[in-house]
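Sequence, please.
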C-alpha cells in the first residue's frame, strides 16, 4: 500500500479547503438519491447502501431535511442520475480516475474532456488505468469510541481490515473491497459510529514530481473536483512533505 498514508492524510487535510460545504452536501445528496433508487427501499435499515450514505451525511452535519429531500427525489430524479467514470493522465503524467453521478452524460464528457485538453492531459478509455489503482474500503472513526485498543485491533483485523492508520483524533481503517460489508457490520456490532465510510481507489504506486509540477497537478485535480457532476477524483500523485507544507 505504498503512498497510502500520505494520500489519505492529504485527502483529509485538504477536504475542508477543497470542497465548499454546498458541494459536499450536493455529492452526498446524489449518493443518497441513487442509493434509495438502487436499493429499492427508502428505509435505511433495509437498504445498506442508503444506511451508509446517511451515516456519511451525519459525518458532515448535513441537516435532516436535506437528507429527507434527497431520499424523496429517488422516484423522480433518481431515474435520471447515472454513474459514469473517466480515466486519463494530466499534468506531469499523473493518473486520475474520475467518478461522476450525472443526469446528462454528454455534459459530463464535455466538461471532463475540456479540462484534460486545456491542461495538456489525455483522456483514456475506460479500464485503461485499472491496473494502477486497487479499490479499497476506507472507514474513519473517532478514537474516543475505542475502549480497549488492543482488543479492537484484533477484532477488526479478524473482520477483514488490513491497515490501521493512527491519526490525531481518528483511526482510518482500510480493507479489501470484498470485505467492505463485513467490516461495516462488525463496526455496527461493536456500537462504533462511523464518521465516514466509502470505497476509494488507492494507487498501488505513486508519481513523484518537483514542487512546481506537483502544485500544477493538484490545481488540475481541484478543477475536476469543482465540476458539479464529479463525485470523486482519485490520483497517484505522491504527496511529499514539501507539497503538504506549501498548501498550508
Amino acid at each position: 500500500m505504498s503512498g497510502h498514508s500520505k494520500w489519505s492524510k492529504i485527502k483529509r487535510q485538504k477536504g475542508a479547503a477543497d470542497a465548499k460545504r454546498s458541494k459536499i452536501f450536493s455529492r452526498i445528496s446524489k449518493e443518497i438519491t441513487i442509493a434509495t433508487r438502487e436499493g429499492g427501499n427508502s428505509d435505511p435499515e433495509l437498504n445498506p447502501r442508503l444506511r451508509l450514505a446517511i451515516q456519511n451525511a451525519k459525518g458532515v452535519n448535513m441537516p435532516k431535511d436535506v437528507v429527507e429531500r434527497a431520499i424523496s427525489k429517488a422516484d423522480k430524479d433518481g431515474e435520471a442520475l447515472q454513474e459514469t467514470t473517466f480515466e486519463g493522465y494530466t499534468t506531469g503524467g499523473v493518473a486520475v480516475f474520475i467518478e461522476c453521478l450525472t443526469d446528462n452524460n454528454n455534459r459530463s464528457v464535455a466538461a471532463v474532456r475540456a479540462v484534460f485538453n486545456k491542461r495538456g492531459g489525455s483522456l483514456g478509455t475506460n479500464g485503461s488505468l485499472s491496473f494502477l489503482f486497487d479499490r479499497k474500503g476506507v472507514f474513519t472513526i473517532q478514537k474516543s469510541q475505542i475502549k480497549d485498543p488492543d482488543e479492537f485491533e484484533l477484532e477488526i483485523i479478524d473482520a477483514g481490515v488490513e491497515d490501521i492508520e493512527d491519526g490525531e483524533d481518528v483511526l482510518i481503517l482500510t480493507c479489501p473491497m470484498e470485505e467492505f460489508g463485513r467490516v461495516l457490520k462488525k463496526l455496527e456490532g461493536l456500537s462504533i459510529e462511523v464518521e465516514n465510510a466509502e470505497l476509494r481507489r488507492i494507487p498501488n504506486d505513486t508519481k513523484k514530481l518537483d514542487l512546481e509540477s506537483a502544485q500544477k497537478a493538484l490545481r488540475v485535480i481541484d478543477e475536476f473536483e469543482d465540476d458539479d457532476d464529479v463525485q470523486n477524483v482519485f490520483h497517484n500523485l505522491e504527496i511529499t512533505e514539501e507539497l503538504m507544507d506549501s498548501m498550508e
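The first strand starts at residue 82 and ends at 90.
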